[in-house]
Specification:
Elements: H1 2-8, E1 15-21, H2 26-40, E2 45-54, H3 56-61, E3 66-69, E4 74-76, H4 88-93, H5 118-143, H6 147-152, E5 158-160, H7 161-167, E6 172-173, H8 176-187
Parallel strand pairs: 1-2, 2-3, 2-4, 3-6
Antiparallel strand pairs: 4-5
Helix pairs in contact: 1-2
């Protein structure tokens, strides 16, 4: 809603998105990515990555027109993660026996008191891969990379801002001052805008 309000507010001439996050949920990252894309269609947008802009936070950054980060900022982590805890032995140790009735073999799977194997593991792997393929595609599209080049960077690694510039993950080294200067030069915005 706040992003939509910015898009509709004529007093707002451009938006700087300040990012300092290790990421978040896949759907949350997608929602920010799409909302910033709608904003970008109406106003110049710039991402400024502070210490960290990884995973879903990096997904958010690529939705803008230009990405700035410090040389030693951490960027990237293109990938998707699903974690599973097998607490079966703990439950057994404390004397808790869990039982369930489900409408299908994959309903409520994976179960936290069993290892992640077989069909449940395959179903989760398919979910992770589907999300991952979309992430790689939007990185390739937004960063002007070929899909193989984006895929080569999508092994989950994090890199410094300097390496991010070299690989095309971000545009340039800088912070808010450099972002404002870019908006002034490239979009004819007044230097004294707040």
């Amino acid at each position: 809603e706040a992003i939509t309000e910015l898009a509709e507010n004529d007093a707002v001439k451009a938006v700087i998105v300040s990012i300092n996050s290790p990421g978040g949920t896949t759907a949350g990252g997608e929602e920010l990515y799409e909302a910033l894309g709608r904003l970008r269609a109406t106003k110049p947008t710039v991402a400024v990555i502070g210490e960290l802009g990884a995973s879903a936070a990096y997904m958010t950054a690529i939705a803008t027109d230009r990405i700035f980060a410090r040389r030693l900022s951490i960027v990237g982590s293109i990938g998707v993660l699903y974690q599973h805890v097998n607490a079966g032995k703990l439950m057994e140790t404390i004397g808790v026996d869990l039982d369930k009735v489900a409408s299908g073999p994959l309903k409520a799977e994976p179960d936290f008191n069993e290892p992640l194997t077989g069909e449940p593991r395959a179903a989760i792997a398919a979910l992770v891969d589907d999300s991952f393929q979309w992430f790689v595609d939007v990185v390739a599209e937004r960063r002007g990379l070929t899909r193989p080049a984006a895929l080569a960077l999508a092994d989950g690694r994090i890199v410094t801002g300097r390496v991010g510039v070299e690989t095309g993950l971000i545009d340039t080294i800088g912070g808010e001052a450099e972002a404002l200067a870019w908006l002034e030069t490239e979009h004819d915005l007044a230097a004294d805008l707040d």
